[in-house]
Specification:
Layout lengths: L2 E5 L2 E4 L4 E8 L8 E6 L6 E6 L6 E3 L7 E6 L4 E6 L8 E7 L19 E6 L1
Parallel strand pairs: 2-10
Antiparallel strand pairs: 1-3, 3-8, 4-5, 4-9, 5-6, 7-8, 9-10
Length: about 120
């Protein structure tokens, strides 16, 4: 059974930082590109960032470039999203997922390969 568990969300003021973690089990972690998605109330889900299986290639949407950093530790089956200079518009539920690949239009394999999410709230 594939399980992805996110942690590290919380409430911060604008300009603050959070580090999200996502630990996987039941899957050969190093075989998959991994990504982070977010969904705010009333908005569609969007892919925020992804990283290839070896960690060498990453992708970010324009709105988080220069502020967010994705990384992974295959020995720990864990993916991270370091979020700095947070803005109120970053407020959303953040999900990690195992991907079909890492590129500008990345998608996750299925709902079974996606975590339950961790809430990020940024106040102005």
């Amino acid at each position: 059974l594939v399980k992805l568990v996110e942690s590290g969300g919380g409430s911060v003021q604008a300009g603050g930082s959070l580090r999200l973690s996502c630990t996987a089990s039941g899957v050969v972690f190093e075989r998959y590109s991994m990504g982070w998605f977010r969904q705010a109330p009333g908005k569609e889900r969007e892919g925020v960032s992804c990283v290839t299986w070896g960690g060498r290639t990453t992708y970010y949407i324009d709105s988080v470039k220069g502020r967010f950093t994705i990384s992974r530790d295959n020995a720990k089956s864990t993916t991270y999203l370091q979020m700095n200079s947070l803005k109120p518009e970053d407020t959303a539920m953040y999900y990690c997922a195992a991907l079909n690949g890492c590129s500008s239009n990345f998608t996750y394999i299925s709902d079974n390969y996606r975590g339950q999410g961790t809430q990020v709230t940024v106040s102005s």
